[in-house]
Every structure is written in C-alpha cells, then in structure tokens.
Amino acid sequence: MANDEQFPSNSPAWRPDTVLVHGGTTRSEWGETSEALHLTQGFVYKSAEQAEARFKQEDPGFQYTRFGNPTISMFEDRLKLFEGAEECRATATGMAAVTASMLSYMRTGDHIVAARAMFGSCRYIVETLCPRFGIEATLVDGKDLDAWRAAIRPNTKMFFFETPSNPVLELVDIAAVCKIARENGILTIVDNVFATPMLQRPLALGADIVVYSATKHIDGQGRCLGGAVLGKTEFITKYVQEWLRQTGPSISPFNAWVMLKGLETLPIRVKAQCETSVKIADLLSGLKGVTRVLYPGRADHPQAALARKQMPGGGQMIAFEVEGGKQGAFRCLNALRLIRISNNLGDAKSLVTHPATTTHFKLTPEQRSELGISDGMIRLSIGLEAAEDLADDLTNAVKKVTG
User: Do 163 and 174 meet the contact criterion of CB atoms below 8 Å apart?
Assistant: First the structure.
C-alpha cells in the first residue's frame, strides 16, 4: 500500500484533532475512505529471494501479523504522530504494554523504583513478577520527590508510575520525577491511561516511555482490548519490538482497526466527559452521605495546583467515599439504575466499581489504607450520558447509604 500524494498521511500544519482522524492513513489500490482492515495472519512474497530479504529487513514490507500488519501500523503511526513519539508499538492489552516496556529492557540484577499508588496488576508486575527474574523493586510515595531520590541505587534502571493513579487519583509531578531520573541515567515509564493523550503529554514533560491501555478511553466504547508503548526509536526497536516478536503479545488487526476508529472521536468524547465530570464531582461533594470527593479538576483536590500545571482538564474519573464503609458503598452501588457496576473504565457508558473488593482486593487492608483506598470508596468513570440523568441516579443511590 502507498499513500496518494494528493492525500498525505500527515502534515506538520495539522492540529491534534485532525491528526486523530487522518494521521498515518495508508490506502490500498482501491482508494477506500475508511482505513482498510487487513485481517490476515501472513503475507506472500514474489520470490524466495524477496522472502529472504524481508526477514533480513533489507526489503520493506510485512512478514507475519505477529511482527506487523498494515492495519496495526496505521494505528501505531496515528498514535505516535499525536503523542509526538518517535515510535509506537501496539499490544494485545494495556498490561501487555506495561510488561513489555519493563521486562524487555531490564535484566537480572537491575532495580526498578515505582510509585506505590497504581493499578493492582501493575503493582503485581513490579512487586511480584520482577523479583522472580532477579529484578529488585522499591515502592515509594510518588508525591515525595525526596523518596524517589533516596530509592536510587547504582543498579536502578527504571522509574515507573501512573498519574493520576488508580483509583485514588493521586498525581505525580512528571517533569520533576523525570528530571531526577534523567540526572541519574534512569529511564522513566509513565502510565497515562487515566489522563489520556488528550489531557497529558508525558513525553513532552520528560518521560522516556509512555504506555496506554487502549482498552479504556482510546477505544472508548467497551469493545476491544489493546495497548500501546511509545518512545524513542532506539528503545522501541531494540527492546520492545523484539519482545513482542518473540513472546507474542501482539494486538489483532481487528482490534487495531477498532482503536483507529476510537482515535477519531477521542477529542470530542474526552471534552464531553470532562465537562460532565466537573458537574458530577460538584454534585457529589454536596450530597449527604458522601464524606469525600477526589477529582483533579476541583480546587479541593490535595494536588490541585499540580493538576492545573500538567493537565488542561480534570479528566473523566472521580473517586468518592460514602458513609458506612463497605456496606454503605454496596448499598449505593446496588441502588444505581443507570450507572453500571463494572471493573472497566473509559467507556461511553458511566461505570462504577468498589476498588477494595475488585481491582485492589489482593492488597492487604494495611496496603489499601496506606494508599487511601477505604472500604467506602467508589471509583466512577464518567461516560457520555446526560449529566442530569447521571446526577439523578447518583443522588437517589447515595440516599440509600444513609436511608
């Protein structure tokens, strides 16, 4: 396939919203409008010599969809253009992206430092899986810059954190932590799933690698799994690409095609969800039975100044606590009629979950307490419904907590 010169796949003059619709597009000889779905496992060669050259990477083209595919490449190219990255590789899931970015690079004897406020599966990779391969791990308070500095050892190779964090929406100062890492020859990975590339640009703030669960807001409609790793060409091609090629956590062409379609509407979805989130966070803060609201877009967020510094909006995620602990939270969840209970997030449908018994249930009560995950905490992912309908549903549900 080749781009028609009349219709380039990217232009330096294009604004972000335009890149997410047109960036990286290639067309077949049929000149299709929508990106083509190349649902194929393998590719054929004109000759044995071409096959040899293709595997030697002397001839451009594709070999096997586990290694690369035209549809997958379009998704990777569009995301890297928007993110401002040199390279991108798509993965089967967000956790595949996290695992590939870490384990493709680190070796036995290395050391990783990570912010302790993170998604349960990410914490498992850092705290449980890495040590199995002889990689030492240290968890720190991500808000404390001195803690990052103090954790550095001669064998520290990587920093990892997510911001805002799951589920307590704790922030890490990306630029400051990346500066510490850079001064000590350490690579930094930022999990940017909650903020999305619309609200936060970790690479521009000094990060070396950014990872996404494209399952969330990039798809945005609860359909397919996917992930992405973005960074400099040397890191992606030398480490991540080889890891994906040999171990196989590759995204399917169909899922990549769905993600391409998701990128087209990402700006308008995020804008609408952020506007609704502000209204809902304000509503919750005034409801009897709600004891705490955590939303980076509110002035009462503990890190509101940092949120304004590195995010142009508060995001689509809200955490709030209700009276009565677990029983109170369950009464609230079970009383909802519009908002659905699910451990997923980033959907067009608003979703709630109880982190203490789902996404973070494997942590001990002491660990959850340390992270600020109370038994009464509820995580809310705002969708695309009318704000008034969400407000009515939540108001009625919260009444069940105290009534």
Answer: yes
